[in-house]
Design a protein that fits this description.
The complex is a heterodimer of chains A (129) and B (363).
Chain A: E1 9-10, E2 15-19, E3 25-29, H1 31-37, E4 40-44, E5 51-52, E6 57-63, E7 67-71, E8 76-81, H2 91-94, E9 103-107, H3 117-128
Antiparallel strand pairs in A: 1-2, 2-3, 3-9, 4-6, 5-8, 6-7, 8-9
Chain B: H1 8-13, E1 17-21, E2 24-29, H2 33-42, E3 45-48, E4 53-58, H3 62-69, E5 83-89, E6 95-105, E7 108-113, H4 118-129, E8 135-138, E9 142-148, H5 152-157, H6 162-169, E10 176-179, E11 182-185, E12 194-200, H7 201-213, E13 217-219, H8 221-230, H9 267-275, E14 281-287, E15 298-301, E16 305-315, E17 320-327, E18 334-339, E19 342-349, E20 354-355, E21 358-359
Parallel strand pairs in B: 3-13
Antiparallel strand pairs in B: 1-2, 3-9, 4-7, 4-8, 5-6, 6-7, 9-12, 10-11, 11-12, 14-17, 14-19, 15-16, 15-18, 16-17, 18-19, 20-21
Classes of the chains: A alpha+beta (129), B alpha+beta (363).
């Protein structure tokens, strides 16, 4: 398990968020999530311009094992999607916090509950017990 | 904690992701299920299948007993070492389990059944055996390793005792050899060439390490499932069970209707089912677009009716999603599946999807 990047926030749904300088938020799934899913083979992305609601599903990641919804941790508008994932979903496995990013959202509301890297690590440790 | 095979420690040491499978702690993968899958299609992979149940059936009436117990007819087996795939049925024609039976002589057979069905199978077999002069001996003292892939036999041959190499490599498909304490069969569950090797439990870990050292990649149950799905091979409990007959599970070819005078469990029920032309059929599906077909997905056939995916997934060799499905009778090539409230186009195809490393359906 790689160390959690310090500039990210995390959700209990195993998503990560990065606040960008232009006010948007980049979202992906965590290393723990990709590891649990196994090899990813398909990613269903939302449309650019689509409105998403905090807690609502916005993408689907499918692995050899299972399909998993990706929930939006914030209400807002999708400003970019990582189209490259359509052909290389494995980027989420190999680089979940980098090339494996999924969507970028311009929030219209505050971000709901998130965890710092340390809090998320504690959350993960709690899951293993 | 579940039951562990003699190779369990080796899996953990190799970094396997362990999952429960029918009460056994088994390796799901050792890092990447996809890479393991491709290794078997292109090179060689090794699977721990020690959880499967090995049963020796011996005695004066072993042949008569198995002819009554199984839907396929062991009397067709004439050459010592020859293997046969069969279903074991309930009187209603439901599938208790699928299995492979190996013939040595009319008084001696080896039957290999599934892991999750062990208790009920043994209970059923022992129950039926009561009327015959036969001994049913489970062999929990064995381990079993499947080596599969185009290079598997050549690589594995370097590991087995020298005096048996030539004979083992000379085995025809679906033939087995007793090589002292080893039992080597040219059978498998991947659609590739290879062996399944039954050996004494205490030698299991050693042989496993030597197969791996010879260049055969450890593969988990995840790859085993995508490989068997591509090969169009049924999985018990998923594609068929006691509520479905072989006739609606794509296994009609495993029923020996002849000779007429052979009685076997489930025969009367099957004859009635065979006459019903409206019975559901079993087919393969290819998802036309992107996405992944999953077990229990609803299949809709326009103007005909509905069916269900019995096992679906991503086919790494085809880079498409495929499935096996139980669908309404009729002659049609297209259908739709419902996933997450949306409809997707699928093509009805005849399994297998992949054999010996290459697609056997048009993509």
């Amino acid at each position: 398990m790689t160390e959690l990047p310090g500039d990210l926030l995390f959700t209990s749904e195993h998503e990560w968020l990065r606040q960008e300088e232009d006010g948007t938020i980049t979202i992906g799934i965590t290393d723990h999530a990709q590891d649990a899913l196994g090899d990813l083979v398909y990613v269903e992305l939302p449309e650019v311009g689509q409105d998403v609601t905090s807690g609502g599903d916005m993408a689907v990641v499918e692995s050899v094992k299972a399909a998993s919804d990706v929930y939006s941790p914030v209400t807002g508008e999708v400003t970019a999607v990582n189209d490259v994932l359509a052909d290389t979903p494995e980027n989420i496995n190999s680089d979940p916090y980098g090339d494996g990013w999924i969507v970028r959202i311009r929030p219209s509301d505050d971000v709901a509950d998130t965890m710092t890297p340390m809090e998320y690590q504690e959350f993960l440790d709690g899951l293993e017990e | 904690m579940g039951k562990q095979t003699p190779l369990y420690d080796a899996h953990v040491d190799a970094g396997a992701r362990i999952v429960d499978f029918g009460g056994w702690d088994m390796p799901l993968h050792y890092g990447s299920q996809l890479e393991e899958h491709h290794s078997v299609r292109k090179h060689a992979g090794a699977f721990d299948v020690s959880h499967m149940t090995v049963i020796d059936v011996e005695g004066a009436q072993a042949c008569e007993f198995l002819r009554y117990l199984l839907a396929n007819d062991v009397a067709k087996l004439k050459v010592p070492g020859k293997a046969m795939y069969s279903c074991m049925l309930t009187p209603d024609g439901g599938v208790i389990d699928d299995l492979i039976v190996y013939f040595f002589e009319r008084t001696r057979y080896r039957v290999i059944v599934n892991a999750a069905t062990r208790e009920k199978d043994l209970a059923w077999i022992n129950d039926q055996a009561g009327k015959f002069s036969v001994a049913v001996n489970e062999r929990p003292d064995t381990a079993m390793i499947a080596v599969q892939g185009p290079q598997a036999r050549e690589l594995a041959a370097t590991v087995i005792p020298r005096q048996w190499r030539e004979a083992a490599l000379a085995l025809d498909p679906f033939m087995a050899l007793e090589a002292d304490e080893l039992f080597i069969a040219r059978t498998g569950y991947t659609g590739e060439d290879g062996w399944e090797v039954v050996l004494p439990a205490e030698q299991g870990a050693d042989y496993w390490q030597r197969f791996v050292a010879a260049g055969i990649r450890p593969c988990g149950l995840g790859a085993r499932d995508t490989l068997r799905l591509e090969a169009g091979m049924n999985l018990y409990g998923t594609d068929m069970d006691e509520t479905t007959s072989p006739l609606e599970s794509g296994l009609g070819w495993t029923i020996a209707w002849e000779p007429d005078d052979r009685d076997f469990i489930g025969k009367t029920a099957l004859i009635a089912m065979r006459a019903n032309k409206d019975r559901r059929k079993f087919c393969g599906l290819l998802l036309e677009g992107r996405g992944v077909l999953r077990n229990h997905v609803r299949v809709l056939v326009d103007g005909v009716g509905e069916g269900e995916v019995t096992s679906g997934g991503f086919a790494p060799t085809l880079e498409r999603s495929i499935a096996m499905a139980r669908v309404p009778a009729g002659d049609y090539q297209r259908a739709k599946v419902e996933m997450r409230g949306k409809l997707f186009d699928v093509r009805v195809v005849k399994p297998p999807f992949v054999r010996n490393g290459a697609a056997t359906i048009e993509i």
